[in-house]
Design a protein that fits this description.
Blueprint: H1 6-24, H2 45-58, H3 65-74, H4 80-93
């Protein structure tokens, strides 16, 4: 379990926004918490997987994709803000994220 600091929150936010800006070819200042990943950015689920892998390496996380899938069924991610929040929970709780409600 990782203690979440403001530095980690800011890092996650920057990585997520920079990633979507590059992949979707938009300026970072066009992306905010309310930006809809699918409708506004034409994002897709493979982007989620790439980001998860990036964060797994960066934070040395031990989490199964199956666990993230189960969590996502109960807590769907549609916006950048929701994705940032979910990623912070993954860093903090790893496989125990499934026990959060």
């Amino acid at each position: 379990m990782t203690a979440i600091t403001e530095e980690i929150k800011n890092d996650v936010r920057k990585i997520v926004i920079d990633y979507f800006a590059e992949e979707c070819e938009v300026n970072t200042d066009e992306i905010n918490n309310n930006t809809h990943i699918f409708d506004d950015l034409d994002g897709d689920s493979l982007m989620f997987l790439e980001l998860i892998e990036l964060f797994k390496k960066k934070y040395n996380l031990n989490i199964d994709l199956k666990t993230i899938g189960k969590y996502s069924l109960k807590h769907p991610v549609r916006t950048i803000g929701e994705l940032i929040d979910m990623q912070i929970l993954i860093i903090e709780h790893e496989n125990n994220i499934i026990n959060i409600d």
